[in-house]
Write a structure and sequence with these properties.
Largest sheet: 5 strands, antiparallel
Strand order of the largest sheet: 3-2-5-8-9
Helix content: 10-25%
Number of helices: 3
Radius of gyration: 25 Å
Shape: elongated
Number of strands: 9
Structural class: alpha+beta
Number of domains: 1
Strand content: over 45%
Length: 172
């Protein structure tokens, strides 16, 4: 009986001792950079105002209007994180302008690219967000509405790997 109790006590002490063991090393901080590039057709910018809602430096959400007269929006962000993965990316919001459409057809296009990097990985992702050729004037509003709020993002793990995130979303 004494041997059984001693064995049970020893087993309990060993179990408690093993569960207390852990790493005293602090979690390391990973720095990731992402460059967002979005190219718009001139026709799209003629008929719609465009805003970009995006994950900015250190995970904060920002919104910017694409300036008139420019067909490219470009932004680089840096995020420091530890202990978990992070999502970076953006969504494009189109708002139809209140002007008369003067032509019978429009080419409405948006091409996007995210270039992401960590100390251990570098990846480039591309996405066609809108690609409508010869949109008749009476279908422009419908096309703009249908394609607004499309998101594009990537996930960066704490180990530094980078993967496309098909479920990415961002909102203000």
């Amino acid at each position: 009986m004494k041997k059984t109790l001693f064995a049970l006590f020893a087993l309990t002490c060993m179990t408690l001792g093993l569960t207390a063991c852990g790493s005293d090393e602090p979690e390391k901080t990973v720095t990731a950079t992402a460059t967002y590039q979005i190219d718009f057709s001139e026709d799209l910018l003629e008929v719609a105002n465009v805003a970009v809602v995006y994950i900015a430096d250190n995970g904060q959400v920002s919104i910017e209007n694409v300036p008139a007269g420019t067909t490219q929006w470009l932004r680089q962000v840096t995020c420091d994180f530890k202990g978990k993965s992070i999502d970076v990316g953006f969504k494009v919001v189109y708002t139809l302008k209140n002007n008369e459409l003067t032509r019978s057809n429009y080419e409405l296009e948006t091409e996007a690219k995210i270039t992401a990097g960590t100390p251990t990985s570098h990846r480039v992702f591309e996405m066609t967000m809108l690609d409508e050729d010869e949109v008749r004037a009476n279908k422009v509003a419908e096309t703009i509405t249908r394609n607004s709020n499309k998101a594009f993002g990537v996930n960066i793990t704490r180990e530094g790997s980078i993967e496309r995130n098909n479920n990415f979303t961002v909102s203000i």
